[in-house]
Amino acid sequence: MSESRIEEVLESERFLLEPIRVEHAAKLFEAMQPVDLYTYIPTSPPKSIDSLSSKFERWEQRYSSDNNEIWLNYAIRHKISKEYYGTLQVTIIRNKETYVAYEVFPKFWRMGVAKECLLVLILFLFQSFGCEKVTAHLDTNNIASLKLLESLNFKKVGFLKDADFFD
Fold this sequence. Notes:
The protein has 167 residues and is an alpha+beta fold. The protein contains four helices and six strands. The longest helix is centred in the C-terminal third of the chain and has 17 residues, at 113-129.
């Protein structure tokens, strides 16, 4: 496992995947406000730049407090426009599983952003961290996300009834 690559900026054809830092909070806050972004995830828009900064400060540690999890979180930035398109999150539980999550800001939906960035990220996880399997949890009503994961050869392996509760 190459943890030395934990701070590496990843690159796809159109995007840079920047490891999230506290300073990203001010850059991402407005784009994270549309309620449509939270239709299928059990959370709400960040209440303030300060609350988002606190979250990103934890993420910037790159490890859980017990050092059992590696956290790789990225801001998706367009190479040409420099605009932020979304975020990617990875949790690697040592000697266990690897989980990915993604949020593409609504104005960039259906532009292939998540697929392009996840391909780069998953390859990085396999090559640099020795991950053999990557898991994603999603709301079964999120058809776009389901199709995205199927296009990346993810397989449905389980169903958690009432896994999350929404407002």
